[in-house]
Amino acid sequence: MTELALRRTPVDRERLLRLVQEYGVYLGVAVLVLVNTVFTPHFVSGENFRTQAVQVAPVLIVALGMALAIGSEGVDLSVGSVMALSTSLISLYLGYGPWLAIIVAVLGGMAVGLANGSLIAFIGVQPIVATLALMVAGRGLALVLLPQLKDVRDPGMATLGSGDLLGIPHLVLIAAALALAVAFTVRRTTFGRQLLAIGDSRPAAQLAGLPVRRVLILVYVVSGALAAIAGVLATARLSASDPTSLGTLMELSAITAVVVGGTPLSGGRVRIGGTVAGAVLIQLLTATLIKHDLPPSWTQIAQAVVIVAAVCAARERGKR
């Protein structure tokens, strides 16, 4: 009987690790909701839930693009700078109308993504190096275009940032629609299957004749576009363009949401549902610390701990 128990121990441990990786993020969200319900005054209210949903929307949108990049066995460190660049472009082109300004901002993000993808696909630069370079260059360009904070006064932007449809904020509706679109793309399209194949093994994908370069470029163009959209929405919500601070450390929040959501850093898999839950987890964790008067620096420490725990769980599972 003892021998049987010893034989079952590795299996039980593997099963536990699998459950943690698959469902741990949902358990974390449930625990935070329960803790806040009990210990945080006025947590259970429509106004608070609306506030949390609005604040998580830009993080989720950026995390969707990050999930695609990580699924292709890469990473996009330039997302925060793309948000800063988009807010600068919004301010510069808003005089021509909000829609033109939004289009220019998104095109700017796509241009950064095209540069990232080209460096990775054609020159062979490692994703972390290529996107790090664009992270620095993108923030610098944003500050050149708009050196300081500037108010954004436009009815269209105000409606986008604070308006709602049937009581649901526009920001939340846009984030939900983008999450569904990305999930459909990953699961139901040829592009999604090719992305996962490349992330699983790029040499094998090349031998199979898949358009590796084209897919990688599209991944980073989409990531750049999503980060720019997040920057536009954040600008609309704040009614101000601030390239100095907008998007700062957003790459950390996005990576945390993706990794905690179950998408492995080794690529080959993308969990959009888990990414959504991961973004909610990060927002609830931040809100919990703030509501209990802990300094913002604790949020960064907590995110780092969560990332390490998620990566360690994934590595332990991968060893078996």
From TrEMBL:
Pfam families: BPD_transp_2 (PF02653). It comes from the Bacteria. It is found in: Cell membrane. InterPro entries: ABC_transp_permease. The chain crosses the membrane at residues 23-41, 53-70, 90-112, 119-146, 166-186, 215-234, 246-265. Keywords: Cell membrane, Membrane, Transmembrane, Transmembrane helix. The keyword Aminoacyl-tRNA synthetase does not apply. One of its GO terms (molecular function) is transmembrane transporter activity. The keyword Membrane applies. It is a multi-pass membrane protein. PANTHER family: ABC TRANSPORTER PERMEASE PROTEIN YPHD-RELATED-RELATED (PTHR32196), GALACTOFURANOSE TRANSPORTER PERMEASE PROTEIN YTFT (PTHR32196:SF19). This is ATPase. It comes from Streptomyces lunaelactis.
